Amino acid sequence: MPVAIFGSVEAGIIYAIMALGVYLSFRILDFPDLTVDGSFVTGAAVSAVLIINGVNPFLATLASLVAGFIAGCMTGILHTKGKINALLSGILMMIALYSINLRIMGRSNIPLLQESTVITKLTEFWKGLGIDDTMNGLLGFTPKTWGIIFFMLILTIAIKLIMDRFLKTEVGLAIRATGDNQTMIRSFSANTDHLTILGLGISNALVAFAGGLIAQYNGFSDIGMGIGMIIIGLASVIIGEAVFGKKTIARTTLAVIGGAIIYRIVVTIALRVRFLETSDVKLITALIVIAALVLPKAIDRQKDKKRKSLRLKARASGDLVIGKGGK
């Protein structure tokens, strides 16, 4: 069980990069971007094809980021210049990307188990340091390596810090304002179309980057690996906000990372229940999202009721005191 939890934390940290991209479109731009289901696979497809053709895996992963940026920009152009509804433009791009991804890969599945990837290179480097034996002795269980979790945590935190910094720049503040109130930001002569396209481009770049890393982590790229990815991203954002709060941008992005890790741990534990099977993952995801949406509101309602009850009791006791004083 500890090894399974460790693996879910490891994967959760990589998926957190995708969740940060979903947070940018869903919360910052207020844009329901279903392109995510397609751009995640685009990142995986581009990195896999480049790796099997001998390209350095680090460059291949960066190429997936560029491909995702282009896909996101296309969704933004459909919405802003083509005047297509936000939801529909995302769906259209997602459908188009399915065929594009098949064209990129040339087949529905590309195995990477025999290839040199970012994951294998990081693992080899980490093993050369000889830290795994010390860590395993201290904690009492033996994962495959500590290297992946270490490097991916550094990478995810670095992306989080860059994103925090970007959202405080002039362009970042304009993107945030565009999501809050487009009419107001237009009155200041800002081009909201360009800001929306840029925001969606960055969002899908992060999603595709995560797709490229997940393909290398899992050892394959598959045309169906993006199905339901938007729900997983939303689940990470909603769980993170519910558990860790969202008072500031820095705190919320950290919460999104935490939410992605919690989501993976919950799914791993749920799949250990006897009557659940691997095919129930989507059902578990839906139940987790429903719980994350409903429970905080139910808790807030209970707190409000408790506060009202205490106020009524305090008022009643005050009236009683006044009444006694009046006698």
What does this structure look like?
The protein is mainly alpha-helical and 327 residues long. Helix content is 78%, strand content 2%. A two-stranded antiparallel sheet has the order 1-2. The longest helix has 46 residues, at 281-326. 41% of the residues are buried.
Short description:
The chain has a two-stranded antiparallel ribbon. The chain is mostly helical. Helix content is 78%, strand content 2%.
**Secondary-structure class:** mainly alpha
Mean pLDDT over the residues? 86
What percent of residues are in strands?
A: under 5%
Percentage of residues assigned to helices: over 70%
| Number of continuous helical runs | 13
**How is the main sheet built?**
2 strands, antiparallel
Q: What is the number of beta strands?
A: 2
Shape: globular
* Contiguous runs where pLDDT drops below 50 for at least 5 residues: none
Sequence of secondary-structure elements: HHHHEHHHHHHEHHH
- Indicate the radius of gyration in whole angstroms: 23 Å
**Distance from first to last alpha carbon:** 70 Å
> How are strands sequenced across the largest beta sheet?
1-2
